[in-house]
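Researcher: Structure for this, please.
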Amino acid sequence: MQSFENFRPRLKAGQVIPQGDKVVFETSSPFDQIVLPIENLDLLLLCDGKRSLREIIEELYRRQGSVHFRATYKAVMLLRERGFLQNGHQLKPVEQERPDSWNFNFKLKPIWQVFLGKRIFNDRISPGLFYLVSMATIVLAILALGEISFDSLSLKLLHVDDSFVRSLVLFVVSGSILMSLKNFLKLFLLLFLTGRAYNFSLAFNGAFFYFRTGSESLFLISNKLYVTIFHLSVALSYFVFSAVFYWLFPDAPYKEVLFMISAVLAIVDLDPFRPSELSQFFRALYEDENLVRLTAYLKTRSFLSLISPSERQSDTGLYFMYSHVAIVWSVISFYLLGGSLAKEARGLFDTIAKADMDEQLAAMGILFVLVSCFAMVFVNLGQVVMANIVMPAQRRLRSYARKRKVRTVNDFQYNEVMTILEHLPLFTAFNNEFLSMIVSKSEIIKYPVGTPVVIQGNMGRSLYVLLDGILDVEKRIDGGQVNHLGELHPSAIFGEVAVIEEKPRTADVVAQTDAIVLVIPAHVIRQMARDSQYVREIDDFQNLIMVNQFFSSAPEFRDLPTEVVQLFMARGKIEIYGPQQTIIRQGARGDSFYMTLRGAVDVLINDHPVARIKQGGFFGEIALIADVPRTATITARERTVVLKIGADAFWETLSQDIRMALFIESVGQMRIQEDIDFYHQPVAALPPSVA
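Model: Predicted structure, token format:
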């Protein structure tokens, strides 16, 4: 099957008939028709089997001045599904994101839902009212916890009135009511805090039927105190609703059971190993605010899939805190699950062996869930231990073993090394004199088979050039798995980011055969730049490295094909801005797209700061996609380096990769909606995090 960009769509024989704001395509034999928006007229006329979709998108841009990628993609896929393409079987749909390798849990997302509405606006936000309601919820929840006796921690809810069937019915009904009430609370808190709430539905997740509210508007808030209070109050609200019910009806039955159901739901919501309320909270603490703001347009993933203490120093402290929370949660879960298995196992097995069919099925279901939960908690906790203890110990052992195996090579010809460097694109900015100084201050080292040249997680302090041999590039996932990323052959360069800054290595590089490597200390190049006349050349050298690093590490762009990255690099221009310097001015004509290579920028609408975009982010896409003047002013928050892409290059590049085009277009639409909402929001109503 062909990728979307390379597919050459060929329509069946028929005729294209414009009809007002629609266009009808009719086939002649057998007779069939499809109706599309008139914007797809040119697309239909170009589907002759001679052009690839990449070429069609480029032609649409030349004719129309812009391309709506999602509409184009949907139109082509609809033609394929309805059988209007002669070669539709050759088209490979855009693949979904890879599953979260950390997420070993029950899927509690809705498997069926009926949408009730898309959006509710509150004309005036009330941060004070939000704070009052959320803090009252937390305080009442703490008081309600006093209603839970130690004996009830045995999970009596498993065997209510000596019936497992009755236990399941009570659990499902009570859980559905409690989850609905929690989502109503979430709805009001979001309205108080942001003035808007999105996506309401009646949902069924396999266990509960409940009212559901989306959390998308929460990502508009950058005040982390508010985000913390929000998640804590929502997660603890089950206890408040249970307590209020029994304060109103003190003689109602199943008091301990209902509180234990509340405890189970709260524990599930606070599960740190899956996309949950707690994971969302930790994502809000994640330093990459640009990524947090785009959460609604990225695959929902657990927090552990986004950070790695072995790759980024900035993740270390956050991961350390997260690990403690995960361990405490696991201990509590082990206590409850182990206690319930120990106390209820005999009753479960007796019921399975002797009771009626309905009781047997209920008992088997409960036993399966308990054992599965126990196994999942054990496996996930093991991954935390692996990342915090086993892998750091492995790194130290491997570093020690490497020192004993490697040796310096003295018989490698100097002229041969110089010839290799002269032909490498990264070193073309330097003359022979400068290259000679680099080589004289470097080492040539031989690494035997199986010896690591670079160890993931170690600080990067050298730049490497492979002179002879083959190297494997491997990435160790924090759970212990090893992914093979590729091979390096002479004269590959790796570890170049160390020239700019010392950062943890993001992968292992291991000798597949005996390998000879030129090891250039990064501080040598930096020192030579300060002490010589080659400042301009060093700047060009570092700029090239920054661009390479951006496309290899930015979450939104790291999976781009090589030819797309090369096109960006060839058509882009490096620009540097000082603190408070304006990059884009609101209302101006937009003719460029920007990628933040270093530093951070502030986004201002009507001179009010509304967002911040850090390294790895991008901006300027709205004016190009929507063909409108700039919707915001962008100023450099600190010394900022950007890669500027002109409009023609922007559209040419997007036509090369439909995934990137759909993503950037979705982000642009999200930002447009946020801007519209901001324009309609009274200035006096802005929350502290925005105003």
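Researcher: Any notable elements?
Model: The first strand starts at residue 14 and ends at 19. The longest helix spans residues 357-405.
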